Amino acid sequence: MVITAKTKVKDALDANPALKEVLIKISPKFEKLNNPLIYKTVAKWATFNDVARIGNISICELLHLLNKANGTEERLYEAFPDCVKEIETEEAAEKPEWMDTVRQFILFDVRERNDYFFPEVVKKMRQLKPDQALTVINSFDPVPLKNSAREMGFDSYTEKKSDWEFHVHFHSDQPPKRDVSNWLEYKDEFEVLDVRGWKEDPFTEILKVANQTPLGEGFRLVQMFEPIPLINMLKPLGFDHHTEQVSTFRYHIYFCKTREVAPSFSVGKDGKIPLVIQSATPVVYPVLMRLLQSPRLMEQVKIEDLKVWYETEKHMGWIVNGRADISFSAVVAVAKLFANNIDIKLASIDVWDNFYLLTRGYRAESFGDLKGHTIHVPLFRAAPPFAVTSYLMKKLGFDPEQFQFNFGEPFGRPDLMKNQFIRGEIDTVLLREPEASFALHGAGKDAHVSLSYSDLWKQIQPDMDRLPNAGVVFKGEFLRKYPEVSELFLEELRAAIQWVNENRQAAAELSYDIMGQDPRAVELFLQRVNFYHQPAREAKKKILRYLNVLQEEGVIKLKKGQEELEGLFL
Description:
- By secondary structure, this protein is of the alpha/beta class.
- Helices cover 39% and strands 21% of the residues.
- It has 24 helices and 19 strands.
- Helix 11 (228-234) packs parallel to helix 14 (312-320), helix 18 crosses helix 23 (519-528) and helix 22 crosses helix 23 (519-528).
- The protein starts with 8 loop residues before the first helix and ends in an 18-residue tail after the last helix.
- Residues 88-92 have low confidence and may be disordered.
């Protein structure tokens, strides 16, 4: 093909990829074409007339150099003078009416930018209000950008201030909507969030970005692994994802909000209030089974959904999008969500002292006896299990850096580690309930509870009798709309916990089937687990002490300190 002024760059380079190197030799500015994201965006819209403007080279010189390398120089002569004709544009030369109605022009100067700023431009355009316009200041007329904007539904108007300064104004009366069925086609426009190397858990920042993402938009997460728990958490928030492994330790995970979350259920014809209950772990199965037998509660409510997760991050997604009315959640998760302005209230603490360090084939009387063994810890390094371990070690005179830890690949699941312990593949593991009891039952006499974190906690904090682990969280909207039902639920919850504590064998028979375990394993779990119902306000001092430890270890970060949590307690 002969290359003319109106030939698209993409068409020419698709036909002859070697021409890219010719362009780069003509001007260093064209080295950006080696960036696949820039190439995909710019080459789609740019003509060689645009290229000549960008590179400050005459169109004739450019076309002769390219066609000579392409073997079509003779045909170029034959096409003269049509070969140098520019593509006719429909862009009005006159100032459009909307320029006089815009109240605010948001300036974005890219003249000194050498990076790929196109996603930033798109994001700024899509955040515009009807009385705003985005003014992009560039050293040339960015025709490819204007064509891309036109495709997205934006009008543009260009003001040439000088040969080296162009002001391009973008405006739309109505924010254009994306065709989410084809979101992979525009995924490269998404904002990039690179969390590789972060020392703290990036959950808070990712959650903030997700909450601010409108329908049809998204973001690209760059991580050293594919974060399956995060993917699970964002899915119920209305996000689809696409993962690309760029290298061994570099993944690009694209998230797009493709749907709005389902609205809350309304009261049925029978007058019963619909209720969605969930738990972050299987630990409360026996309590839930007893609750469902409550005549008082079942007369008032209809259970629309009941979820007990083995992937704990999924329950956080349900809290964030308001899908769950009542959740059994870990204290640290509740604190993080509340600090990020999620409308929830912590009603009570019901699960206490839930960390046990198990050993197989040997006993450990202290942390010092664990040296030489790999300590398998669920979740990631910047999560509560390791944070509490690190805190206890330091307070008891040990250096965590002198121990060998393993966190899984990368989100070691308690159930997975429990099975590894039972099979004898690992000999030292930190587990919560019910996995700790199931591991002891499965491994038999060879397994031991070497360290109870509850005992160590009391040793360090003698004025605190319990380590608060998890409790009940109400969605704020549900609490305000149905205060009587909320109060009834807490009354029946207290009664259910008391019954489970007093009837452990019967509770095991009630729940072993749904837990998928041997009845004896569930009964062992119920003999070991510490269920105790205490209103959150009564337990406030213990909760804040526990959260203070986690804050010292970097698990949670509160900008204003614990005063941020004053409104959390019901």
